[in-house]
Amino acid sequence: MIALFCILWSSAFAAAKMALEDCPPLILLTLRFLAAGLLMMIMAAATGGLKGGLRHIGWRDFGCLLVLGLCNNALYLGLSWIGMTTVSSAFTAVLISTNPLLTGLLAGPVLGERLGWRQYVGLCLGLAGVALVLRSRFTGMHEDPHGALLVAGGLLGLVAGTLLYKRMAPKTTIWVTTGVQALAGGVMLLPFAMHYESLQHVHLTASLFWNMVYIIVGVSIGGYALWITILKRQSATSASALHFLMPPLGLLFGWLILREPVSWLDMAGIVPIGFGIWLATRRAA
After folding, report:
1. Which has the closest alpha carbon to 189: 89, 85, 82?
2. What is the mean pLDDT of the chain?
3. Which of 4-8, 16-20, 34-38 comes out lowest in average pLDDT?
4. What is the torsional sign of CA 178, 179, 184, 187?
């Protein structure tokens, strides 16, 4: 489950970068969220989730899902995808992978999670590896600072969504949870997409179609369902530490699919990242 989640999540950056060549980011995300949300609600109905989930959902859980849709979908992906129009998919994956550090630092005061020395050392090693990759990218002036700031804003949205889910834990089925979030994100982005972007800039190509299919079915439905399941079973710190796998995987997919350059500093950063994940997620004896 964890391996599949990491592959889906990290490959989404390269798929999104390709799709953004034929469609503006907000229009693309609005269509993605609405289509994915509708499909997930159909799946909820087919599995009986609507009968036991949506009909009896309380206002607290419904409001929580709306805020999660704002954080996890509208803010996280909205800002990071706009930023990815001027920065590489690999850089976006690396920057988003700092999510475990922020989540781990905030999990104590917000959720009451206690971190041992292994978790602290693991988080620091992971951050050191990410810093190596970021240094490599900025030293070569391959990335746009404004785009990087937008991606950083998306990162904060993801951290907020992770902490909110662990604190509020809405009592709904997995398909209702992800479906309502996706629909909420699409509805929230719709007015911004209509105001700032135009359908004239959408190019209906085979590449756009297949990348959209992958992003909707593989990432929005499969990836988010796996992420919510992992969050239910692990602490916020341990689950978020999986995002340290995104730099090497993001670099791999960026190089393999988009031919984005990879330097020796990028590769060197993978070592402390991998060791940091092992320390941050292993249980004490």
Report:
1. 82
2. 82
3. 4-8
4. positive
Question: Could you tell me the two tokens for 8?
Answer: 């889906």
Distance of alpha carbon 39 from alpha carbon 113, whole angstroms = 35
Which amino acid, one-letter code, is at 162?
T
In tens, the pLDDT along 21-68 reads: 999 999 999 999 999 999 988 888 877 655 555 556 777 888 888 999
Kindly report the length of the chain.
285
DSSP letters, the chain, are -HHHHHHHHHHHHHHHHHHTTTS-HHHHHHHHHHHHHHHHHHHHHHTTHIIIIITT--HHHHHHHHHHIIIIIIIHHHHHHHHTTTS-HHHHHHHHTTHHHHHHHHHHHHH-PPP-HHHHHHHHHHHHHHHHHHHHHHHTT-S-HHHHHHHHHHHHHHHHHHHHHHHH---S-HHHHHHHHHHHHHHHHHHHHHHH--GGG----HHHHHHHHIIIIIIIIIIHHHHHHHHHHS-HHHHHGGGGGHHHHHHHHHHHHH-----HHHHHHHHHHHHHHHHHHSPP-
Q: Which residues contact 145 (CB under 8 A, 6 or more apart)?
A: none
pLDDT, tens digit, for every residue of 93-135? Answer: 878 877 877 887 787 777 777 777 787 888 888 788 878 877 7
Residue 43 is predicted with a pLDDT of: 83
Of 136, 97, 139, residue with least CA distance to 266: 136
**pLDDT digits 0-9 by tens, 94-105:** 788 778 778 877
**Amino acid at the residue 184:** A
